[in-house]
Queue: 3 jobs
Job 1
Amino acid sequence: MAFTNRNGRTQTALSEINVTPLVDVMLVLLVIFMVTAPILQTGIQINLPKTREAKSEEAPNTAIIISIDKDGAIYFNGGSERKAVNVNDLPELLERRLALTSDRKVYLRGDGDTPYRVIAYVLDQAKKAKANVSLVTEPIKK
């Protein structure tokens, strides 16, 4: 498309899109997501027990994670949401989420100072739901 200015000269329209602002915005968003993603994964303060023979295994994004803090509060998929679940609601939550996954794997993150009765209860509920439970620990640094 051509335009004529006051002097009678013909000018063509600029038909290219300037992508520099788009790239700038995308890079800023990338940095923001890179910074906030680890924070969402470890939102609950838990002092994991340390073991020598801990295997390094990455939990997938769709993994079922149950976290128990030192006071015995249970958090279901507790990284991004800090709301504790009711102990009586845990069996129903487990059944509902395990029905959606094929591997039936549950990661249990328990604080080192958590009362054993709470961990035993969660393990019992996971066993009733026929889940494969993995206890999450930290490796001892030499």
Note: DSSP finds three helices and eight strands in the chain.
Job 2
Amino acid sequence: MGLNVQDLDESLARWQAAGVPVAHSGAPFPQAWVETPGGLLIEILQTPDQEHPIQHHHVHYYVPEADIPVAQQWYAEVFEVVPGMRGRFDAADIPGANLTFSAADGELDGTRGRVLDHVGFEVEDLGAFCRRVEERSDVELDRPCERDPITGQMRAYLYDPWGTYLAVTERP
């Protein structure tokens, strides 16, 4: 996943002082990596003019190289994202985030139960979303559209064809 910060050096110094492993990427632009205790690498990019000191930017989806355009199209159809490019990467944009598609090295492992268990999406009408995706032959809801008894939030869960577990909630 990727985050944007207003000041990369200040952010890295603060995280390093807290014992978080950090490393500059060596790229010709302000980019670094932070590693979580579970081994998740988080890409950090500098965007000085953003509104908040830190904010979400993108999620990397690793799929077989031949599947990159297929994955981009699948997300465009299922989540109505806008396909495009992010630098040299095939990508898709949704409000507030970018989905970046890259070639996987080796076998794919699903995300469920791992350090990054799932990726979350918000939709305006979860019932309509669930009805629409259930008509597809390549989508099966893992957990159907349901209301959380504690929070009252509507949610559903599914897998993409490459094993990424996806939580879909209804925007309040």
Note: The longest strand covers residues 54-63.
Job 3
Amino acid sequence: MALDEPVNTDSEFDVDGYKFIVNTEFLEKAKPIKVDFHMYGFKLDCGIDFGAGCGSCGTKGSCCA
């Protein structure tokens, strides 16, 4: 997750006053995408299986952010 400006290949979502921009092609591969705010930052979940590549977060569709 990073600050960015939208381009014509992005999908935009406004959720509770926050604007989220996702590359449309990536969105098709990763959906559903879920962004949660926790006390120490954001937690991202998506439909991509990252396997053991994320250290201790090896759950399907979830990776520590």
Note: Residues 13 and 19 are 6 Å apart (CA to CA).
